[in-house]
Amino acid sequence: NLSEKLQRSFKNLRGQGTLTEENISEALREIRLALLESDVNLDVVKQLIEQIRIKALGTQVATALSPTEQIVKIVNDELVNILGKDTARFKFSSQPPSVILMAGLQGSGKTTTSGKLAQWLKKGGHRPMLVSVDVYRPAAREQLAVVARTTGTSIYEGKLDPDTTHGTADVLRLAKEAKRDAANFGCDILIVDTAGRLGIDKELMDEMAELKKLLNPSEILFVADAMTGQDAVNSAKAFNDLLAITGAVLTKMDGDARGGAALSIRQVTGAPIKFLGTGEKPDAFEPFHPDRIVSRIMGMGDIATLLERAEEKLDRGKAENFAKKALTGEGFTLEDFREQLRQIKKMGSMKSILKMLPSVGPFAGMAQAAENVDESQFSRIENIINSMTNKERQNADIINGSRRKRIATGSGTTVQEVNNLLRQYSQMSKMFKNMGGGGGIKAQQRMMS
Ligand code: GDP
Ligand code: MG
Description:
With 449 residues, this protein is α/β, with parallel strands linked by helices.
């Protein structure tokens, strides 16, 4: 993946503290190659590189991040920028049935995706109907009929004389009938699977334009095979110029597609990627999460590391100050204790950090674990320390029974919670003292983890 390549090729940049014009240029050469290898289209790569160059040159020197890490972060942010932060919304028309027009080259996965979409919509409480307007290949219409049967979806089959040749007029007639049929049967969505194209074929493109005019679809989804990488861009552009697509579906993401097509399509059409196809079965389908594809391109482990490093940077001065006290075991006050809590809070809530991780592979289940983190505990402890006088914070020994009562009342907690905190604090300072010289920082990390 990109991040690995960057790490490898940037080895020689290590040790240099800052981003200079020179090492940025060197890095950009590598990024360019890496993006091309990730199947991002050449023109898109050029644009990206320029944006990254501008950002990198304008970046303040951040001491805790190496030049490599700074650039990886900039690239990451830029990719997220292009793809958008959030999952795109799916549009419905106010007048049912909403029509979803499927567009794309032959073999891209339109028919398969039509079935997946139907299934996904049904799960969401909708009543979709399918129709194939591929009048040129009986096998194509039969394929959709099979999909409809296996997913238990309504389908409008219509009538076509098998002995005559068919054209756009039949396509439009079928589409019109299907829309009426959907309305009659109380289906709120009509998914229109269209004829395949081997390339950008004028006749079939005109037909698409007419279908759009006739059906007034709320979604025009461009279906692209993620494995086609570079080529996806040209067809995406052609379809978008003609139809103004509302979104794209990237299929075959279960293969070793690198995800570059997502970036290219988004950059060239401006339309969001809305779904991913991840297999041949009807349920191998999911809404597109921009951050996940960026992880895929960049390498997910590195992003996690990077975040950690960035957070570290935020707190560095104070952490060093704390480490000094922890190392000597002298002068560790409740004031310092409170500061540590604030540092942890600054790293973002544990919840938000855990949720940033992809929900696949080794990270599966993390998001769920995040639900169980009790963030309020941090605030309660901080409130207790806030309710102490300066003198008390500097010298915990003077906090007697009546002071404890006052602090509990002032912080809206109980005497028992105050006692717990003081015990924790005293254990911590004792531990630092015992360790005297070495290991203080490690101990802190153990305590805080
Ligand atoms: P169409 O010509 O655009 O209608 O494409 P099809 O829906 O017929 O799909 C072409 C081939 O790609 C079929 O063999 C599908 O099973 C396969 N296919 C479609 N989507 C996916 C996917 O997400 N993953 C995998 N592995 N195969 C897919
Ligand atoms: Mg098809």
